[in-house]
Amino acid sequence: MTRLESLFNEHLQELHAAETHLVNEMPRLIQGALSSEFKSMLQQHAVQSEKHAAYLEGVLKQRGLPLHEIRCKPIDLLIKQGLEIAERRGDTVLLDLSLISVLRQIETYERCAYETTRTLAESLDLLDVVKTLDLHIQDEGQMEQSWTVLIEDMVDSLHKEATLARATRHAASEGEVPAV
Fold first, then answer.
1. 3: which residues sit within 8 A by CB, 6+ positions away?
2. 3-state secondary structure string across 11-31
3. What is the per-residue pLDDT across 116-154, written as a single tens digit (0 to 9) for each?
4. Which end of the chain is more exposed for a tag (fewer CB within 10 A), N or C?
């Protein structure tokens, strides 16, 4: 085995570990989500992660590699952070924003890891793997974009609420009835 093949195998194992860990903890993350739209997106993400983990498991088995030898420490830490947020109680929108932020970081990491692994696969002429990894990269990018749009919508909603609250306070201090 060449050093390039060895590096490729390590990346596959790390990606599998990341996807598997995310799949295993997704029910707790879903439970911690407070808005229905966010919960729905997390459920979609869980299905996507299960497909990615199953594919990676198949490639690892084909290559005769162990499934649980390597951990993905960055993803482990991000998931831990997400679980800590998911267990908090308080302002619905702010907690969801915090959790979405962590999930967006996970997507960014995964997309970059898939891109690197794809480049290694291409160098090794593993064209069938390259094609599938291209799809995974696309999936991760789309999910990352979805998280970004959701964050923007939630921040916009918070901004509108704050503007309305300021207008209401100002009107009350002036003895006016705010226009709704």
1. none
2. HHHHHHHHHHHHHHHHHHHHH
3. 999 999 999 999 999 999 999 999 989 989 989 999 988
4. C
Query: Angle formed by the axes of helices 3-32 and 36-62, to 10°?
Result: 150
Residue carrying the six token digits 């999930």: 103
∠ Cα 38 40 44 (to 5°): 115
CA distances from 168 to 20, 80, 90, 93 (A): 49, 40, 24, 21
What are the extents of the domains in the chain? 3-173
- Fold classification of 3-173 is Ferritin (1.20.1260)
DSSP-derived letter for residue 90 is: S
- What is the value of pTM for the model shown? 0.85
Task: Report yes or no: 16 and 56 within 8 Å, Cβ to Cβ.
Answer: yes
Is 24 in contact with 119 (CB distance < 8 Å)?
no
Of the candidates 66, 86, 70, the one whose C-alpha atom is nearest the C-alpha of residue 78 is: 86
- Please report the pLDDT score of residue 180 as a whole number: 55
Residue that has been written with the tokens 């593993």 in this structure? 126
